[in-house]
Amino acid sequence: MANPLKCDLCDKPATVHLTQIVSNKVHKVDLCEACAQAKGVTDPSGFSLSDLLLKASLNPEVAPGAMRCESCGFTQADFKKHGRFGCPACYDAFKGMLEPMLDGMHKGTKHTGKIPQAALARQTLHERLSKLELDLSDAIKSERYEDAARTRDEISQVKQATHQSPPR
Amino acid sequence: MTIASLIASPSELTDAASNKTAIVLMTRIRLARNLATQPFPGWAKPAQRSRIAEICTAAVAAAAPLKRSLNVAVDQLGELEKQILVERHLISRELSGSKQGSSVIISKDQTVSVMVNEEDHLRIQVLRAGFQLKKTWNVINELDTALEASLDYAFSPTLGYLTACPTNLGTGMRASAMMHLPALVISSQMEKVVRAVNQLGMVVRGLFGEGSDASGSIFQISNQTTLGESEEEILKRLTSVLQSIIEHELNAREKLLEADAGKLFDKIGRAYGIMQNSHLLNSSEAMNLLSLIRLGIDLGVFPDANRSTIDRLFIEAQPGHLQHAQKGEFDPAQRDLLRAAHLRSEFANFVRPDFSLINSNGKN
Ligand SMILES: [Zn+2]
Ligand SMILES: [Zn+2]
């Protein structure tokens, strides 16, 4: 005999079984009476499957705190509790659990929309500058003065370029 | 601009009502955006929240569409003021309940609003009366690009705009239309429509009341997913779903008139009678009656010019607006009295229904 299905949100026996097709993907959610009521599942107009799927996809137990974001201190247990991340860097820290979750949640797993051109250009310049500054201090430390002079020129060129094309 | 003068001026929704807004009352697009180097609002410490608010509000207030706007911290607003902004769709319920460090910037014409430190650092919203997805997208896209010139957005080439909740990843865009669908409700087809729309990756919600309550037969249809498709693709899909819902609603109206016009006229006529004579109206009943009058306008029973009055009343009959007009706070029973009194006076001189004018094909 198979075990009776458990509710995806709590551990009570599930009595409500939903199959819904979202973006050509079949999703199954099993709920107990109480959770079905609380989520408005019984009322078709108020019911959003995405919230449920989010919670349900987190259900496979993971050792709490197994992953942690170095930038903001957010843990996997925090995510399970809030359903939200702590900071943008969390998306790197929790990469492993993200893929399967996004696959069930969205139409695809790769962004194909708008790109913030200006912000990205600024970021690239920033990264280039900090790398050059690192090179410069290395060159000075190891007394490679010719390299240092060249790097210094490059830095002022990059800085000038930033000033010549200020953000719109 | 002050909150008082904003409340005193009509919102986009009540002002621009015309026969173009017959079935789609309003189009709305919101974008979720975050700063690259700050924790999301829900995880940020108070000092960080203040810093985020400072950076964001400075950038937003400098953007062209938000010059001379209302720029106010949420904790500076009274309960009633917040409720009014929620009822006008200018802020979310979540923002109205948020703690220190949250604020909102609202344009003078109330078509653009930016929430700061809601679930994400920025929730940019543009709304337009009627079915105007393209125009709304052009406005919000331009504003977003202008903000990005001074704000460093959290963005990943593979995941798109990074948001606090992974359900908003990618475009961070939620586009929606508010639709008046009385014939689909009367003919019990809404459940079928909701199911079909869900299968197409769109979400349907009742607009008035909490969550699922669909009083007034007004529904909000929006995209469910945000990652894996471009903004244009999402809008294109939503547009075709909306067009097909409009078709279904018009067909349902035609069928109602064919099958039993007397029954439909009776509903509209009674709604008019109750509006003129009732002394107790709860919010849900008022919304349903207004919906029937609005259907009457679409069918030609009342003149087209009255649609803007009804759309204004949809908003004025809600608790926040009702109490603000009476300059006080009232319990629900008192509100039902006030609501009925307000609608009675509005309908005292409202033109009588003329069922001989009905448009035989049910299409406006
Ligand atoms: Zn349960
Ligand atoms: Zn983090």
What does this 3D model show about the protein?
The complex is a heterodimer of chains A (168) and B (364). Helices cover 49% and strands 8% of the residues of chain A. Chain A is mainly alpha-helical and 168 residues long. Chain A has a two-stranded antiparallel sheet. In chain A, strand 1 and strand 2 (25-31) form a beta hairpin. The longest helix of chain A has 25 residues, at 117-141. Chain A is elongated and about 75 Å long. Residues 164-168 of chain A have low confidence and may be disordered. Chain B has 364 residues and is α+β, with helices and mostly antiparallel strands. Chain B has two domains: 3-170, Glutamine synthetase/guanido kinase, catalytic domain (Creatine Kinase, Chain A, domain 2, 2-Layer Sandwich), CATH 3.30.590.10; 258-347, no CATH class. In chain B, 46% of the residues lie in helices and 15% in strands. Chain B has an eight-stranded antiparallel β-sheet. In chain B, helix 4 packs across helix 12 (319-325) and helix 9 (231-277) packs across helix 10. Chain B is globular and about 65 Å long. Chains A and B meet through strand 1, helix 2, helix 5 and helix 6 of A and helix 6, strand 6, strand 7, helix 8 and strand 9 of B. Residues 69, 71-72, 74, 86-87, 89-90 of chain A line the site of one zinc ion.
